[in-house]
Write a structure and sequence with these properties.
The chain has 459 residues and is an alpha+beta fold. Helix content is 35%, strand content 15%. Among the domains are: 74 residues, no CATH class; 73 residues, Alpha-Beta Complex (Actin, Chain A, domain 4). The strands form 6 sheets. Strands 8, 9, 10, 11 and 14 form a 5-stranded mixed β-sheet that branches. Strand 6, helix 3 and strand 7 form a beta-alpha-beta unit. The C terminus is likely disordered.
């Protein structure tokens, strides 16, 4: 069964899926949601009518509604494929939503592995064989290399590659081609008119059908039925269509080449190349992939991913429900660029000056204690050697743009009596406007030398 990924919520809360949802969306487009799979893991909810649901919750309800409508009843085992590049957060978000809707036993299978599993059922692969998967779906493109390790066991040979590009983008190219052909009448349409909205929805479906026909025909005529527009058909040729989508197709081929290099598998070592997804049937895709790999390729049969998922569900036990719990509410936020971060004031000079001042004060105090003890004790005499102490004082910078800085203070020269030669300490000229000096310590047996020092260019 091929069912469009579309859901519609009626005013009474009933969920419709597939073609039924498409038909109801023509008259009430505010209650429909499409392509919600790509939003799984995004905490921002989707607005569907009067409800706000996350994409994983919509996916769970879609699957539940689809299973309940099967002719043979709900199956005992269910497998659901997903892009191979999904991480732990997105998978756990989906598991939690499935469990909340009574689908805890659903088996999640990476799409490339499901495709290769189905291909192995049709043409048995040897152990160790590598298969490249080119998956051009409706909204995304995925490329991966899958290797067969043993019977019914397939693993990714390297990290998968993906693009936010798919068949819907090609549909939009055809739609814009029609819009350009209808100008200026197109610009005169009323976007709030329900009849116009319904006609535009029909036109979009006609553009999708025309894209699919171009896979077999060389040109198509796209029917147009819009209020107030006399044009009834717009022509589009295959050559013109391929010229419009060629840059996007070349990007997918380059992504496939990156996946092969990441897996360490050259094209000539591949046992098969599988082109899956509806848009992989475009002739330009087959030509570009064949030219890149140097070998003939062709699209795989329809439903390969679904067949492989069914084989996985039949042969493997479903994963336990205990892991169906979301681990986080959202991915971590990226760090702000350095240019946007607030600048921090550097305090290192001030902290260093404070530490030096404390050390000097401790040295003076210890010297005083030793001197006093020498005068009181008659049996032990301690003579402190002459000490030269320099105190570095922090400066407070005051900057006034309209004033010129005063001339720097003259250098000080102080001599120490115990030494035969005077000791000279010179203060470097400072560019600061003013300096604040602390009160010198009281005199003691050691006469300290105090000189004011400032750091030029202090902030």
């Amino acid at each position: 069964m091929l069912v469009p990924s579309v859901v519609f919520q009626s005013p009474d809360g009933t969920f419709l899926v597939g073609s039924d949802a498409e038909r109801r969306a023509l008259t009430d487009p505010g209650r429909v949601a499409r392509q919600f799979k790509n939003r799984i893991g995004d905490p921002t909810p989707l607005r569907i009518g009067d409800s706000a649901l996350t994409a994983e919750a919509v996916t769970a309800r879609f699957l539940l509604r689809l299973l309940s409508s099967l002719p043979g009843g709900q199956p005992t085992r269910v497998a659901l494929t997903h892009p191979a590049g999904w991480g732990h957060y997105r998978l756990e978000s989906l598991r939690a939503a499935l469990s909340a809707n009574g689908l805890a036993q659903v088996l999640l299978v990476p799409e490339p592995q499901a495709v290769v599993r189905a291909h192995d059922a049709l043409a048995r692969l040897e152990e160790g064989a590598a298969v490249a998967v080119y998956d051009l779906g409706g909204k995304t493109f995925d490329a991966a290399v899958v290797r067969k390790l043993a019977a019914d066991r397939f693993v990714l040979a390297g990290p998968p590659e993906e693009l936010d590009l798919g068949g819907l983008d090609f549909d939009e190219v055809v739609f814009q081609h029609v819009v350009e052909a209808l100008r200026p009448e197109w610009d005169a349409l009323d976007p709030m008119d329900p009849a116009v909205l319904t006609a535009v929805a029909d036109l979009r479906r006609a553009c999708t059908a025309a894209k699919e026909k171009l896979s077999a025909d060389t040109e198509v005529l796209i029917p147009v039925a819009l209020p107030g527009i006399a044009t009834r058909e717009v022509r589009l040729g295959r050559t013109e269509f391929e010229s419009m989508i060629r840059p996007a197709v070349e990007e997918t081929v380059a992504t496939l080449d990156r996946a092969l290099r990441a897996a360490g598998t050259p094209p000539h070592e591949l046992a098969a190349v599988l082109l899956v997804g509806g848009s992989s049937r475009i002739p330009l895709v087959t030509q570009e992939v064949s030219a890149q790999l140097g070998r003939a390729v062709s699209p795989a049969p329809n439903g390969m991913a679904a067949i492989g998922a069914a084989l996985e569900a039949r042969g493997l036990e479903p994963e336990p429900a205990a892991v169906a719990t979301a681990m986080w509410t959202r991915p971590p936020l990226p760090e702000a660029p350095k240019a946007l971060r607030p600048k921090r004031r550097k305090l290192t000079p001030f902290v260093t000056a404070g530490v030096l001042a404390v050390a000097v004060a401790g040295g003076v105090l210890a010297n005083n204690v030793l001197t006093n003890k020498a005068g009181a004790d008659t049996t032990t005499t301690t003579t402190a050697p002459p000490t030269t102490t320099t105190t570095v004082e922090p400066s407070v910078v005051q900057y006034t743009p309209t004033q010129q800085p005063p001339p720097p203070p003259p250098p000080r020269t102080t001599t120490q009596p115990p030494k035969p030669k005077p000791t000279t300490t010179t203060t470097r000229p400072s560019t600061t406007v003013s300096t604040t000096k602390s009160t010198p310590p009281p005199p003691s047996s050691t006469t300290p030398i105090t000189s004011g020092m400032t750091k030029a260019g202090a902030p």
